[in-house]
Amino acid sequence: MSSLATEPRSVATKFVEIFLSEHTMFLQRAVIGVVPRFPAIGAAIFESGPRALTERLAKLLAEAHEAGRLRVANPALAAVQFLSIVRGDLDIRGLLLPATPPRRAEIDAQIEAAIELFLHFYGPSEP
Fold first, then answer.
1. Cβ neighbours of residue 4 under 8 Å, at least 6 residues apart?
2. What is this structure's pTM?
C-alpha cells in the first residue's frame, strides 16, 4: 500500500476503534431506544460524533485534492463514502452480536480493502 494510504489508514483505524468500543456500543443501544421520544438527543450525538468526523475528513480530502494527491470533486460525499466502506457491517455486528466481536485481522482486512477501493477511485490520475 502506498504512502498515500497512511493518513486514510490512521483515520479508518481510529474510526473503527471508536465505533466498536464497548462504550460506543452501549451508547448506541441506549440512544436508539429513546430517539423517537427525544430526537434532540440523537441530533446532538450525530452532530458531535459522526457529522464532526465526516466534516474533518472532508477537509483533509479537500486539502489532498488541492495538493494533487487525490481527485476528489466532492469531499463531503467522498468522506461519507470512505467511512461507509470502512464501517461495512462491523457496527451492526457489534450491536447485534456482542458475544462475537470481529477479530483484529478481520478489521484490518476490511480497512485495507476500503482504502484500496477508495484510492482506486479517488487516487491521482496516472501521468
1. 69, 70, 119, 123, 124
2. 0.87
Cα separation, 64 vs 82, whole angstroms: 14
Burial 79-114 (b: 16+ CB within 10 A, else e): bebbbebbbbebeeebeeeeeeebeeeebeebbeeb
Per DSSP, the residues of the chain read --GGGHHHHHHHHHHHHHHTSHHHHHHHHHHHHHTTT-HHHHHHHHIIIIIHHHHHHHHHHHHHHHTTS---S-HHHHHHHHHHHHHTTHHHHHHH-TTSPPPHHHHHHHHHHHHHHHHHHHSPPP-
Q: Is the dihedral of CA 88, 89, 90, 92 positive or negative?
A: positive
pLDDT tens digits, one per residue of 2-35 = 456 678 888 899 999 998 999 999 999 899 999 9
Residues 6+ apart with CB under 8 A from 87: 15, 16, 19
- For residues 34 and 30, what is the distance between their CA atoms, to the nearest angstrom? 7
